[in-house]
Amino acid sequence: xxxxxxxxxxxxxxxxxxxxxxxxxxxxxxxxxxxxxxxxxxxxxxxxxxxxxxxxxxxxxxxxxxxxxxxxxxxxxxxxxxxxxxxxxxxxxxxxxxxxxxxxxxxxxxxxxxxxxxxxxxxxxxxxxxxxxxxxxxxxxxxxxxxxxxxxxxxxxxxxxxxxxxxxxxxxxxxxxxxxxxxxxxxxxxxxxxxxxxxxxxxxxxxxxxxxxxxxxxxxxxxxxxxxxxxxxxxxxxxxxxxxxxxxxxxxxxxxxxxxxxxxxxxxxxxxxxxxxxxxxxxxxxxxxxxxxxxxxxxxxxxxxxxxxxxxxxxxxxxxxxxxxxxxxxxxxxxxxxxxxxxxxxxxxxxxxxxxxxxxxxxxxxxxxxxxxxxxxxxxxxxxxxxxxxxxxxxxxxxxxxxxxxxxxxxxxxxxxxxxxxxxxxxxxxxxxxxxxxxxxxxxxxxxxxxxxxxxxxxxxxxxxx
Length: 466
Prior knowledge:
Blueprint: H1 2-7, E1 14-17, E2 20-23, H2 24-50, H3 58-91, H4 95-122, H5 124-130, H6 139-171, H7 177-199, H8 207-232, H9 243-273, H10 279-316, H11 319-356, H12 360-392, H13 396-420, H14 424-449, H15 452-465
Helix pairs in contact: 2-7, 2-10, 3-4, 3-6, 3-9, 3-10, 4-6, 4-9, 6-8, 7-8, 9-13, 10-11, 10-12, 11-12, 12-14, 13-14
């Protein structure tokens, strides 16, 4: 019991003030379930598409989705920066500033998304060519990809409004809104897709428009549901653009965006490396990636929840509570991630046989990757909690620089080197482990040294000056 009490102190799980109560798991679990729900609905939609017209629409929609991932990372810097600034101002009871922050994020986020969206439409041909759509084997799908693309851009612009409002609600402690609204909209999307494909048997030549229109309808429905709940909770906004808050939001959001893009780039490059390996290794990489996603997203959700609470607590000036809470949440996250990874080592082969009908050569590669992934997830647990906590304390430039450096050195360079030396899939996973562990340890040491307290005070002063 004495050991457990040193590991876990209940008082560092919850923050309560006049703005409401925030609990680490109360924030993290809805975030986790929302991400998993959307992921599973996407899997179901892919399965449906694979059984319609001989799986013709899987390729064009997948190509467009890959392009849209970059678009989402770019526009996400508005509400990503807002979540930190808003949490701090809620902790400081700056209600008027909170209204202005939400309004400025909505205005600037939509304008920025529209401008980037126009560029995405203007450069549609080069972007699809970059994804390989001009190669002979993909040319039959290109027309449908372009049609679907035209619907996805406005859908993502609408999602900026949804994400901004749901992020604001989460900062105020209304954690289940995003879960309920997102799952409702995505389930409707899946049901309407199933009806169009298998009940009404829509002709193939119209399904490019059909899938795009369903996607756009789902985005509109999600936005309306979140907007209704936002108004119901009577959270007020000041819909006047503030140059001061726009500067502060993007000062945090831009480096975070660069981290996301660079990390995505690293994962894309290592995915291309697996194409040079045996087909069984390539399949194992994709299958293991889908399995460990569930571990990854749980640690990510805990890190995001910890960051929201850290921002509010630091805003109140209670640095000691923030320090102890972050250290405890680091221990909890690493312990859970490692436990889930060990569980995957035990049940992974069975899951691969049941879910993907994987043969023994694929399972042999997967078992090695799953074993190494225990170290990967331990590093991710350190990284997720400490990185997002440092961001909340205003240390976002440091975390971005370290993220880009370790990803470039270990994931990309070591990935190439280990593959060239013949270590195959195991070498790629070792490069992941080096990246995550080194980054996690650096972030943890940075937090433990306590310099973030002075940096937070400095960023707060800069925020006040605008």
